[in-house]
Amino acid sequence: MFSNTIPLYLINGFLEGGKTSFIQDVLTNGDFADGQKTLLILCEEGEVEYDQSELTNLNILSLTVDEEKDFNGEYLRNCIRKYRPKRIFVEMNGMWDCKWMFDSALPREVEIAQVITIVDGSTFQVYVNNMKGILSNLFTYTEMVIFNRCTEDMPLHSFRRAVRGVNPRAMVYFEDEEGNPVDPGMEEPPYDLNAAVIQIDDMDYGLWYLDVSDNPERYEGKKVRFLAKVMKSNRFPQGVFIPGRNAMTCCENDIRFVGYLCKAEFAGLLKSRQWIWITAEIRNEYAKEYGEEGPVLYGISYETAEKPADEVVYFN
């Protein structure tokens, strides 16, 4: 950490999703309206325009980058040398790849302070249906996603799963057109939470996986049964493995293995990539493999199983 570290705030999202209004409100109200030299880099121009006179009065300089190839570490280094900002805001083009910013390509004195993604809830389903591959780039690195222009009759739980399927750690919020919070309530799962052993079908695995993470309290001490592929590692302690599934997060090119740690006396009998039906109890506790508290399965029993016709599960 450098003593003169420059924080960078990355605001991502699609064109006309509300990024400009969000940034202008953040910069002209509250803690950021303090007159410190701020550089605002605009990677696209939407319908809403910034009030340049207000930005100038607050010591905020805005620059526009028209081409994706021009926005890189060298560009930022030149901006820092020329303008000496105390902080940087980037209004990112949601169609551009921002991966380079997280692969040590930033100037050494720049540190990403926060990544927020703004999404227009009224058009989001169109992107889900037609541009799923772009969503991975949009959500992978974000810490917070704000869906604006939402109504209670929209499939908000599905929106949240689309985000959390790509980035389980992202916080998701919903707002109406006036900026007021919209509460989708707790989603009721399609399986019986009160069953002695909750049966998780393949079509519900993705929903179960996310719901256990989001609402650990309602799964504490519950017993579940599901079809899983065994994943073992030399890094795991004896008696620990992960029963899970390959899940499609957004498109066919973005599939990853998802599952929770499982502690079981029969772990040593299992082979990696073996298919089993597992019955286990869920507890929420600290695990050093997570580095924090999280769902941990305690294996009760297992049965060998055949590989399913479709190995992939989905989050929607």
Outline the structure in words.
- It is a single chain.
- The protein is of the alpha/beta class and 316 residues long.
- The chain is built from seven helices and 15 strands.
- The chain has helices at residues 19-28, 52-57, 73-83, 124-130, 132-139, 156-166, 205-214, and strands at residues 6-12, 38-42, 60-64, 87-91, 110-120, 144-148, 171-174, 198-200, 223-231, 240-248, 255-259, 262-263, 275-287, 292-304, 312-314.
- It has a seven-stranded parallel sheet with strand order 3-2-4-1-5-6-7, with helices on both faces. Strands 9-10-12-14-13 form a five-stranded mixed beta barrel.
- β8 (198-200), α7 (205-214) and β9 (223-231) form a beta-alpha-beta unit.
- The two termini are 40 Å apart.
- The mean pLDDT is 91.
Secondary structure elements and pairings:
Layout (H helix, E strand, L loop, with lengths): L5 E7 L6 H10 L9 E5 L9 H6 L2 E5 L8 H11 L3 E5 L18 E11 L3 H7 L1 H8 L4 E5 L7 H11 L4 E4 L23 E3 L4 H10 L8 E9 L8 E9 L6 E5 L2 E2 L11 E13 L4 E13 L7 E3 L2
Parallel strand pairs: 1-4, 1-5, 2-3, 2-4, 5-6, 6-7, 8-9, 10-15, 12-14
Antiparallel strand pairs: 9-10, 9-13, 10-11, 10-12, 13-14
Terminal CA distance = 40 Å
Sheet with most strands: 7 strands, parallel
Strand-pairing-aware structural class: alpha/beta
Which percent band covers the strand fraction?
25-35%
Poorly predicted runs: none
Number of beta strands:
15
Percent helix, as a range, is 10-25%
| Radius of gyration, CA atoms, in whole angstroms | 23 Å
Q: Secondary-structure element sequence?
A: EHEHEHEEHHEHEEHEEEEEEE
Instruction: Summarize model confidence as the mean pLDDT.
Output: 91
* Strand order, sheet with most strands: 3-2-4-1-5-6-7
**Count, helices:** 7
C-alpha geometry: elongated
